């Protein structure tokens, strides 16, 4: 009985120690996961649901970005205020985020 309790105690200490050791080893790769484009981060979080990762999913009648001729300013307006089934992002994203993500949607065309 005594042994069991000591064994559990040792196991707990071991778990606590091994958790504590995780922190420094994680910081060894700071650059690995940074997203290069800030607009891409916003896009993946808020826009892929309708526009898709490739910009051409067209769910809910969303426009295919590969075919869009729209200017950056027009895109900023649509993202800010929404249009038909697209929700306005005015309260959800900052002006800078909207501009970044609008610029990101222009990249699909070249591919
Ligand atoms: C709920 C689904 C939905 C989400 C989420 C969504 N969109 Fe849209 N988007 C649409 C629809 C639908 C249209 C077409 C609107 C229309 O009828 O003209 C559209 C149109 C656009 C257009 C205009 C393209 C063109 O040439 O007409 C842009 C730019 C755009 N979306 C960007 C975004 C960005 C950036 C996000 C993320 C911040 C986003 N959308 C999120 C549904 C969505």
Secondary-structure map:
Elements: H1 2-20, H2 22-26, H3 38-46, H4 48-51, H5 72-81, H6 95-105
Helix pairs in contact: 3-6, 5-6
Bound molecules: heme C (HEC).
Residues 46-47, 49-51, 60-63, 68, 70, 75, 78-79, 83-87, 89, 101, 105 line the site of heme C.
In CATH terms, the superfamily of the domain at 38-110 is Cytochrome c-like domain
Number of strands: 0
Instruction: Tell me, briefly, the overall form.
Output: elongated
Which CATH top level class of the domain at 38-110 fits? Answer: Mainly Alpha
Radius of gyration: 23 Å
Q: Extract low-pLDDT stretches.
A: 21-30
Written as H for each helix and E for each strand, in order along the chain, the element string is: HHHHHH
Kindly list the characteristics that best describe this protein:
111 residues, mainly alpha, Cytochrome Bc1 Complex, Chain D, domain 2, 52% helix, binds heme C
Describe this entry's structure for a reader:
By secondary structure, the chain is mainly α. The protein has a domain at 38-110: Cytochrome c-like domain (Cytochrome Bc1 Complex, Chain D, domain 2, Orthogonal Bundle). The protein is built from six helices and no strands. The longest helix is centred in the N-terminal third of the chain and has 19 residues, at 2-20. The chain is elongated. Heme C binds at residues 46-47, 49-51, 60-63, 68, 70, 75, 78-79, 83-87, 89, 101, 105.
